[in-house]
Amino acid sequence: MWQARPSPAMVLAAWLEPRVVGLILACAGLIGAIAVGVVVFVWMERKWRGAAETKAAPAQDESFYRALVEAGLLQEEEFERIRKGLEQKPAAAPPAPLSLKADAPPGEAS
């Protein structure tokens, strides 16, 4: 038996049926709401991380802690411990990149 192929006009009419248009609009609205949520989430995360990074950290020198001792907010023994830690603290070196080669020892770059 022969089956007639629908004409493009009939396909377009089926797509313009109110139920189909409503479904398409509902899906578009849902996708739009999710996209807006992602944008707001990324914006808030960047704002939060930026605020955390720009927060002023106390100075890492002896004068800052000496002022705390003079103000009575830090004991002399604690100041001496902090001063020794500041003197011994070397600059942190970045970790060595890991190699992707199977025969290379761990930690060596290729």
In short:
This protein is mainly alpha-helical and 110 residues long. The chain has four helices and no strands. Helix 3 packs antiparallel against helix 4 (76-88).
Structure description:
The chain has 110 residues and is mainly alpha-helical. Among the domains are: 17-55; 57-89. 61% of the residues lie in helices and 0% in strands. It contains four helices and no strands. The protein is elongated. It starts with 7 loop residues before the first helix and ends in a 22-residue tail after the last helix. The mean pLDDT is 79.
Keywords, separated by commas or semicolons:
single chain, 110 residues
Distance between the amino and carboxyl termini: 69 Å
| Morphology call | elongated
Radius of gyration: 33 Å
Helix content: 55-70%
Secondary structure: elements and pairs:
Blueprint: H1 8-15, H2 18-54, H3 62-70, H4 76-88
